[in-house]
Design brief:
Largest sheet: 5 strands, antiparallel
Strand order of the largest sheet: 8-7-9-14-15
Number of helices: 4
Distance between the termini: 17 Å
Radius of gyration: 16 Å
Oligomer: single chain
Bound molecules: magnesium ion
Order of helices and strands: HHEEEEEHHEEEEEEEEEE
Number of strands: 15
Amino acid sequence: MRDAGRITGEAILAAGEAIKPGVTTAHIDHVIKTYIEKCGAIPTFLGYGGFPASACVSVNDEVIHGIPSHARVLKEGDIVKIDVGATYRGFTGDSARTFPVGAVSDEATRLIRVTEESFYAALAVICEGARIGDIGHAVQSHCEKNGFSVVRRYVGHGVGADLHEDPEIPNFGIAGHGARLLRGMTIAVEPMVNAGTHEVYEMPDGWTVKTKDGKLSAHYEHSIAITENGPELLTRVE
Ligand code: MG
Ligand code: MG
């Protein structure tokens, strides 16, 4: 899990270095696929449920599951979400991050920052014996305190031999409720945070999820191991 996580995190950093105005989302996908394969790993998303690329690349009001395209050119002021999985020796890492393209609006900057902060608010409560609801409560309360909303329809999850395992890890919830975290569990915590309404819809391509009101959305995700010494971030490499 550590090796798969490290490769996943490094692939996201490689993508981040490639992001600039004028680059296509297909190029970002190519950078990620090339990096993962160079490491001897498998791009987990490629073919997963029929997904046609190695990374989800979602721009602005696209929340998740954006399909990389040669026709989609990043421009100054966009925000772009990169979501990546890498499988190495049978284990999988899953991580996502939102990057600004050049200079972005103050609201976009704040949305990206609050989304990352909400992840770390959740991380602060993650330990052996904590409950799933503690995570959701930490994410939701931080985002809503800052005037943003958390997506309800898509959630975090267990991660291990498979990309998506039990339990589900919602970004909303009630502290003290839900199943307990146990030592040895590996989970993906992934706040998906909208500037406006939490409501989303799926595009006719069967993948891309957008905000219902067309406002911006940000995403931040790491795979985490629950250890006797506390949570260990498996996909953070910087
Ligand atoms: Mg992911
Ligand atoms: Mg995930």
